Amino acid sequence: ANAVETTFSDILQETYRRFNITETTEFSNLGTKINYADAKQGDIFTTKYSGSGGHVMLVVDNSPENGCALVAEAGGRDGGVVLTRIKYSTLEDKNYSARDLTDLYN
After folding, report:
1. What is the pLDDT of residue 86?
2. Do residues 34 and 40 lie in contact, with contact meaning Cβ atoms separated by under 8 Å?
3. What does the pLDDT read at residue 1?
4. Cα–Cα distance between 60 and 43 in angstroms, integer?
5. For residue 54, which of 7, 25, 32, 84 is within the disulfide window of CB 3.0 to 4.6 Å?
6. Which of 90, 85, 91 lies closest to 47, judged by CA?
7. How far is CA 90 from the centre of its chain?
8. Do residues 85 and 70 touch, judged by C-beta distance below 8 A?
9. pLDDT 10s digits, 9-42
């Protein structure tokens, strides 16, 4: 595993453990909801799918001036982590919310 995969995995595992999370959709209730442009490294973008399930992306870098962010997310062909540059408009279209997790880890 590379450094990004390890960091992403470690953060998610610690969050699952610390907050007794059993499903990805529960990430939607963590931290404070913020604007995409205000997300910092370590914050998350999360969504719930209709029915059940959800998706979480870890912010690696944010570029408000370009309207996009670099995120780490599960989804590699081998089940690993991939880095994706995603536009805020795409996040909005797919009902993602940005969550500031800073207070949870202080």
Report:
1. 97
2. no
3. 55
4. 8
5. 25
6. 91
7. 14
8. yes
9. 777 777 778 888 878 788 888 889 999 999 999 8
